[in-house]
Amino acid sequence: MNTSAPLDMLRSDQKTMQALEALETYVNSLELDPLLVELVRIRVSQMNGCGFCLSMHLKRARRLGETQARLEHVTVWRDSLLFSEEERIVLGLAEYLTAICGVERRSQWQVNLSPILVPDHLHWTMVIAMINTWNRVMLSVGEL
Fold first, then answer.
1. Average pLDDT of the residues in 41-60
2. Among 95, 89, 76, 77, which residue's Cα sits nearest to residue 118?
């Protein structure tokens, strides 16, 4: 398989890429914990099965200083003692907004509380929406 074909397809649609990049720039400008942003991107990419995005965000998290143990526990964050209350709420929100239907949502209680417990609830929603968008775009063009 030509591994540059998916990226070439994306680059060929300049208006779409400009729109995606503008939204990504906005999301990256939000004053959120950059390490938690990467954890969210990792969890959502795991759920969506996007290996390209997962690999990219694992690398970014490591560069930001995330530990291997925490990266290994992202999929089991509910059962891990390695995540703070805020991280658990944000990861719960990420799962809730990613698995919108057809999946038992064990984090329902966290989502109901998240606007109260996480002041940047809408900003986190934008991070989650953006990584879901990137996952779907990459999967639609045959991720690398």
1. 96
2. 89
